[in-house]
């Protein structure tokens, strides 16, 4: 190995820069390799001119502490079937392989979620390029790892939001509905819901009823507390099972459907005054938490070790207090959802929260 690339792919999160820093430092200082930072995910190798920058520990600046990814990222389009401006689709995988050859890459470290990992592993295989993955996503829904980079920071943000919503809810005797990210999985909602003392937590994996939600809120109010907190993951459907997204902006689906839906329904069913907050991309930005910096550093350096050992087609993962290497086939099988019998679901229920219907 002489030259490696590192790229971030898919939605950003806090801690990506810390991974890039760890990869660069370990590759240059420990192994004496050259490191290219590939800009905007796979597009950096597909575009002409190529979009990249040489990285060295000297030019990393304050990246350990900074949110986002200074390399840029993309989650638009599959390079095997890329949408062109004229409406047609083109296979750009050959350009990717040629780009990797032009840079003289021997291996590529991809920091991504499960979707990015799936696409990039195909691209790298076709290009004859060894790949090692590093899991990241605020949703924490990557198989093969207990934690993905970005998750810890995002649940801190959501917990802080609940800490800020509670006093205003109490002052005005309101029910506050907080919609959080989690397209396919309820990990953010259940973790932050527990940490932030929610009364109701709704996740895509567990069916709920409006009677269940309203009943919980009524019982909270009947016991003398005049406010309540509800956390709902964006991927939750309406009680009728339909998609709650209610509007389109510029042809794009707008977030907020389920939060608005519940706000209306809870007001109708309980008579309580309700307000909704959609946290959105606030959950993805900002300074990485201590935990994310540590995870990013452990993952980045171990990913470089895997490259040195030529253990390609693996992802680093966190299991049982340490970093492990997980074969990519075990990772790229879709989102890792919240088990309806998860420890935290049981914890929430033991604390009296409504987390959807319990199995009979
Ligand atoms: O997968 C991470 C995630 O933050 C989801 O929770 C959310 O639905 C999605 O990304 C938003 O992505 P975009 O960057 O396209 O708005």
TrEMBL record:
Compartments where found: Cytoplasm
Entry annotation: catalytic residues: 139 (proton acceptor)
EC number: 2.7.1.11
PANTHER family xrefs: ATP-DEPENDENT 6-PHOSPHOFRUCTOKINASE 3 (PTHR13697:SF52), PHOSPHOFRUCTOKINASE (PTHR13697)
Keyword Translocase in annotation: no
Gene behind the chain: pfkA
Residue ranges occupied by any Phosphofructokinase domain in the UniProt entry: 4-307
Pathway as given in its UniProt record: Carbohydrate degradation; glycolysis; D-glyceraldehyde 3-phosphate and glycerone phosphate from D-glucose: step 3/4
Protein name per Swiss-Prot or TrEMBL: ATP-dependent 6-phosphofructokinase
Family label: Belongs to the phosphofructokinase type A (PFKA) family. Mixed-substrate PFK group III subfamily.
Residue numbers binding ATP: 11, 76-77, 113-116
Oligomer status and interactors: Homodimer or homotetramer.
Sorted UniProt keywords: ATP-binding, Cytoplasm, Glycolysis, Kinase, Magnesium, Metal-binding, Nucleotide-binding, Transferase
Binding positions for substrate per the UniProt entry: 137-139, 174, 181-183, 234, 275, 281-284
Naturally occurring in which organism (per UniProt): Novispirillum itersonii
Needed cofactors: Mg(2+)
Gene Ontology cellular component annotations, sorted alphabetically: 6-phosphofructokinase complex
Catalytic activity annotation: beta-D-fructose 6-phosphate + ATP = beta-D-fructose 1,6-bisphosphate + ADP + H(+)
Primary location group: cytoplasm
Gene Ontology molecular function: any one: AMP binding
Sites where the protein binds Mg(2+): 114
